[in-house]
């Protein structure tokens, strides 16, 4: 569906306050520290297992398997950082910050303070082409009126012409972008505690590069790093891509209340044990955006409540399979790109 054809349907009766009362009665906003103790432990064990395997395998091309596994594990660590950034794990600022620093800065090389600021702005203004940093930073366009800005260079115009493919191709460099973002935020003066945050991020880089170069000769080390970072970036982007891309986009002159702003711009991925693990609970994107502080493990229980409420009040609730979500994203980008190219 092209952006010209998108419509915004506002329910005259549904309200976030009304829905929240049902969610509270179900007890779904209460902390789940037991779950997160287990989740943090298993994630750390996965990370440790990857590095143990790396040192045991030594100088071998079998390390490429480790590169893939480690790339996936980096994102699993990021899910913990994501959840603690939303205060799902702890409401104590110091503890939340410590968990975030460990799982993002040290284990991933991604600056926690930058991410919290960036992600909170996204949650406040999802798919708002004026304010959502997740749409503004992408090289692809989500509406034809973005062409003058994003199509100002030859490369930008090339991306727009082929954006249904280039969007996914560019995900492979997502890891390098998130590594650099904290330093860019510090340069812009928007990063709190820059010395601590960047020091921990640099520590990750030194430990990572030191380990790889100590075990592998130069050619294998370079191949390992490139593959590992490409898997890390692609997986990270592939998790976030289905959540909003191809859903309603709007400008700041469109006023939406919290309920409609979150539901109409979000898409769920049909749940399952494997899907819930691979997407870190973000496949319940509608519920997560409505209640960012809700523990990840409770989102599946909130889903039927939210879906029923939306049906009762005529609010579109979109849920599809993972493959269908990527098809919809590619189809949307192809249509908008073709519309822009034809002008």
Describe the structure in your own words.
By secondary structure, the protein is mainly alpha-helical. The protein is 66% helix and 1% strand. It has 17 helices and two strands. It has helices at 16-25, 33-57, 63-85, 93-108, 112-124, 133-136, 147-150, 154-161, 163-170, 174-188, 194-215, 218-244, 258-263, 273-278, 285-290, 299-312, 322-342, and strands spanning 268-269, 319-320. A two-stranded parallel sheet has the order 1-2. α3 (63-85) crosses α12, α4 (93-108) packs parallel to α11 and α10 packs antiparallel against α11. The longest helix is centred in the C-terminal third of the chain and has 27 residues, at 218-244. It is globular.
Please outline what is shown here.
By secondary structure, this protein is mostly helical.
């Amino acid at each position: 569906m092209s952006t010209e054809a998108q419509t915004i349907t506002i329910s005259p009766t549904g309200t976030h306050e009304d829905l929240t009362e049902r969610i509270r009665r179900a007890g779904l906003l209460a902390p789940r520290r037991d779950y997160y103790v287990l989740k943090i432990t298993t994630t750390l064990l996965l990370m440790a297992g990857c590095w143990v395997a790396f040192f045991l395998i030594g100088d071998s091309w079998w390390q490429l398997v480790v590169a893939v596994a480690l790339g996936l594990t980096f994102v699993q660590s990021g899910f913990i950082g994501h959840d603690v950034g939303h205060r799902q794990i702890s409401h104590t600022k110091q503890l939340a910050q410590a968990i975030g620093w460990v799982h993002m800065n040290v284990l991933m090389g991604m600056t926690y303070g930058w991410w919290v600021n960036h992600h909170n702005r996204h949650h406040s203004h999802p798919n708002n082409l004026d304010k959502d940093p997740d749409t503004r930073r992408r090289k692809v366009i989500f509406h034809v009126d973005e062409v003058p800005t994003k199509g100002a260079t030859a490369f930008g115009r090339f991306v727009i012409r082929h954006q249904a493919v280039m969007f996914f191709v560019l995900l492979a460099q997502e890891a390098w972008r998130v590594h650099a973002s904290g330093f860019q935020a510090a340069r812009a003066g928007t990063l709190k505690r820059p010395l601590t945050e960047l020091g921990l991020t640099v520590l990750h880089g030194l430990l990572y590069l030191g380990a790889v170069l100590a075990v592998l000769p130069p050619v294998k080390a370079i191949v390992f790093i490139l593959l590992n970072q490409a898997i890390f970036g692609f997986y990270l982007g592939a998790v976030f891509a289905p959540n909003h891309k191809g859903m309603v986009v709007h400008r700041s002159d469109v006023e939406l209340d919290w309920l409609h702003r979150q539901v109409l711009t979000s898409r769920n991925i049909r749940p399952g044990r494997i899907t819930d693990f691979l997407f870190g609970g973000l496949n319940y994107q509608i519920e997560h955006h409505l209640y960012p502080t809700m523990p990840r493990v409770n989102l599946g229980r909130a889903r039927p409540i939210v879906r029923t409420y939306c049906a009762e009040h005529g609010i579109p609730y979109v849920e599809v399979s993972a493959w269908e979500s990527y098809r919809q994203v590619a189809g949307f980008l192809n249509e908008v790109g073709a519309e822009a190219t034809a002008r």
